[in-house]
Every structure is written in C-alpha cells, then in structure tokens.
Amino acid sequence: MKIMFHPLCRTLLAASLLFPSAQVPVQAGNTVLPDLGDESMAVISPAQERKLGENLMRQSRRSLAFMNDPEISEYIQSLGQRLVSHSDNPQQDFRFFVIDNPTINAFAVPGGFIGVHTGLILATQNEAELASVLAHETAHITQRHIPRLIAESQRTTLPALAGIIAGILLASAGHQGGEAAIALTSATVAQKEINYTRSFEEEADRIGMQILANSGFDPNAMPAFFEQMQNLNRLNDTSLPEFLRTHPVTTSRIADSRNRAEQFRVRQTPDSSDFQHVRAKIRALAAGNPDEIARGFRENLAQGKYLNADAERYGYAVALLRTRQLATARTEIGKLVARQPGRISYRILQAETEMAAGNFKQALAVYADAYAKTPGDAPLANYYASALLKTGKYRQARDLLKTALQRRPEDPELYRMLAQAAGDIGTKFEAHKAMAEHYYLSGNPHAAIEQLQLAARFAGDSFYLQSGIEARIAAIKEEIALYQTK
Fold first, then answer.
1. CA distances from 405 to 146, 184, 262, 411, 447 (A)
2. Which candidate in 49, 129, 205, 332 is catalytic?
C-alpha cells in the first residue's frame, strides 16, 4: 500500500519525527504527568508546533514559488482570518499564503500556516468553494492533526518508522526512490497511517463545514467542490490534481458532506468583489504569452464573457501594463477609477502605470493621496514604498516601511526594501540588520548571521546595540543547531 504525501507535507513529517527536542513531556514542578487528553501534547506543544511551522515556512521559501503580490496575499489572509474568527480557536495566530502554481492544491503546515495554489483559486467556481477548502485546512490545524499523526507514528516499531523516515527524506530531496521506500515499508503500518489520515479528513470536513457556515458561506459549497474534483478525477485518469492525491474524494465522502450541509440554513452569499478581482489578476499574471493573455481579456469584454465586468477590465489593465501597452492601460484604468475612485487596487494600478511611463511625480501624487486616506492598507504601503525607493525618496520610504513592518513583521520583502532605504541614506547598521531579517525569513540563516556580524561593525560602542546583535546571532545559531538533520 502506497502512502501519498504532498511534497511539503513529507518534509514536515520528516522534520517533526527527527526533532527529539520537540518531544517534551508534560511537567508540573519536578513531576512528569501523564497527558490524559490529547496525547500529542506530550510529543509537541502548541508553542513548539508554532516554532516548527515558522522554521518550515522559512525553509520553504527556498523551494516553493510564493506569490509575493501584496494584493493577492492580503486577500487570502483576509478570507482566511474571517474563517478562523468563527473556528473553535479564534485566538490562534494563522498565516494564509498563496503559491504561484497552476496545479489544484492546498495544504496545512504545523503552527497555523495554510497554503493554497493559484490553480485552486482559479478552479473554484465561487468564493464559498474557496472558503470551503480553507475552512477544511483550518480544521486540520485547530484539531492538531499533524501533531496527532506524529504522536501516532511514535508508537510504530523502530524499523518501520526508520523506513518511513528514509522514504520521506528521499522523496523530499527529489529522489525517485523515495516513494518506493515508503511503499516497501510494513504493510500494517502503511494501512494504519492511511486509516488515520482518513479519520482526519472526515473530522476536517465536519468541523470545516461548521466554520464555513458560521462564517456566512453556503455549506453546500463543500460538497459542490468535492463533486468538481471527482469529475476532474474521471477526466484525468493519468494525471490527477495534487489535491486529490492528498485529499481523496469518494462518493461516500461527497454524500456525507451533502448530508451535513442539509442540516444548515442555506445561504446564497454573492461573491465578494475582491474575490473576482484577485482571480482576474492571477489570470493576468499567469505564465504564458502576455500579449495573448491581454487579447483574451479584451475578447471577453467585447463578448460579455465575464461574471464581473469591472474585475475583467481590471485584469485586462493588469495584462496591458505587463505588455507595456501603457496608453491603452491608462484608458482602461481611467474607466475603473471613474466608476470607483476609492478602490485602492485601482489607484495602485493607476500609479504603477504612471511609474512605468516615467511619470514619477504623477504616480507619487496618486500614492500620496491614497495613502493619506487609507494608511492602514498593507498592499498600498508596499507599492508606495517601492515607488519611493525607485524615485530616490529614501527617508520617506524608510519611515513608511517601519510602520508597515509593525503590521507585517513576517514579510521578508519589506525588510529587503528597508535595507535598501537605510543603506541609501547611510545608516549602515540599520541596513545590515534589516537585510539579516530578510535572509532569515527567506530561509537563509547563515547569510542572516553574516549580515548581523556586519551590522555589529557599525554599532559603535553602544552596549545596547551590540548586545542585541549578539543575542540575535545566538538565537539563530540555536535554531540552526536544533533543526539541522544529522
């Protein structure tokens, strides 16, 4: 029996199983107490799970194509947070992110991190279907399925566990023998892992639907999406969507979710405008011939083939900007701004078009006006800071970036821009320190340490600054020692 793992999930499980420091018993004073509830707590605590997830997220930035578009990232985080607020653990810190990949997939990372592929966002027929997938993955996190799987694995025999780990590591490294090694492991262990995963899927469906309904979405969206995946399964016998490999869809599973959905009041909630605009932007930025993509948008508008005319026109304008058809882009954006002058995504696109045309003064005026009205908008701050850097407004960019980082301290791109701004105004200590955080969050801790060592040279005789640098280097070295495999 062959166990199928998402490539990232293979890495997660391997890392989790190989970190003995995470296996800390529950204690009270000097007495070790048995965990009478969730036994996974004795294997890895929520705090340790979060640390593990943060480390895996940093490492994954070196191998996964993160969608760094600020507007797309902000939308998926906002939608995800809406769902989390209606879960059974609304206080837990979640981070939703998008992977630029046309395949249909989504996955949960320990500690509250949930990834979704651009292919899945485009495959969903409506926003409720997308929300149903995120709700399902949210349930995996709130129910601690990955730690519970680790706890279950701890009770397997050592040879069997060693075989599983070996296969996982080989597969994670991209070796063809990895999955074969997993398949050759004890059939009994394999069957138990399969069954355990199925029970998690059932629980995630049940709790995810509750989250979906409580968040104001139609619960019927979950079985509808399952049916769509099942149809893809029938049409693609030799090339299954990755989502189906990690989330098997069966007729009984669809029936169960349909029966559960009938227990809730039907909600016909229309898609948000943001959902339609994000989908249009993903299409406009997709791999392929940019001119053909722009032509596709133009033909859709001419033939009325769209669900939201403004979103389709927005996608067309993004595609035009990508192909540097700036005059036409400016015309299309002007139509959008005239209809909705307060929509931030339109003002950003308007400013970016003027930046591309070299009209820097006009672009900065658009950004300044929009930022004065909505200073808390994260995508706007990102684009505005980038424009300020390109036009030599380094001090203004630095101040804006510091404010933005207070809201989004996990964003490596903001740190990279801050390093540039600080370096250009001559504050070398701040520049190297910011660059260190950029490298750290990007999964390159050794480069982060090098930058911190350079920062120390510009700290002067300040005991406070030198102590801070030494403490940060020590913390990163400790993480390197903790997570490196022997």
1. 30, 48, 44, 8, 21
2. 205
Categorize the per-residue pLDDT at 241 as very low, low, confident or very high, splitting at 50, 70 and 90.
Answer: low
Burial of residue 107 (CB within 10 Å: 0-12, 13-18, 19+) is buried
**Residue 201 among known ligand-binding residues:** yes
Overall size of the chain counted in residues: 486
Q: At what angle do helices 187-214 and 127-142 cross, to 10 degrees?
A: 120
H/E element holding 259? helix 251-261
Q: pTM (2 decimals)?
A: 0.84
Residue with tokens 């509830």: 37
292 is catalytic: no
Considering only residues 474 and 50, tell me which one the structure prediction assigns the higher pLDDT: 474
| Bridge partners (DSSP) listed for residue 28 | 31
- Phi and psi at residue 95, in whole multiples of 5°? -135, 115
Q: How far is Cα 226 from Cα 64, in angstroms, rounded to an integer?
A: 26
Annotated active-site residue in 71, 137, 312, 332: 137
Q: State the pairing for strand pair 106-109/113-117.
A: antiparallel
Tell me the CA distances in angstroms from 257 to 101, 114, 217, one per residue in order. 28, 22, 15
Q: How big, in percent rounded to 5, are the helix, strand and coil portions of the chain?
A: 70, 5, 30
> According to the annotation, is 117 in a ligand binding site?
no
What one-letter code names the amino acid at 382? Answer: N
Q: Which tens digits make up the pLDDT trace of 247-275?
A: 677 788 889 899 999 998 877 889 999 99
Whether residue 27 has pLDDT greater than 90: no
Q: CA neighbours within 13 Å on the CB side: how many for 292? A: 4
CA dist., res. 479 & res. 285, Å (int) = 36
Residue indicated by tokens 């030799």: 238
d(CA 142, CA 111): 9
Residue 438 annotated as part of some ligand binding site: no
Query: Does 137 qualify as catalytic in the annotation?
Result: yes
Where exactly are the structural domains of the chain? 7-26+35-261, 272-340, 427-486
The alpha-carbon radius of gyration of the chain (Å, integer) is: 24
Which tens digits make up the pLDDT trace of 330-347? 999 999 999 999 999 999
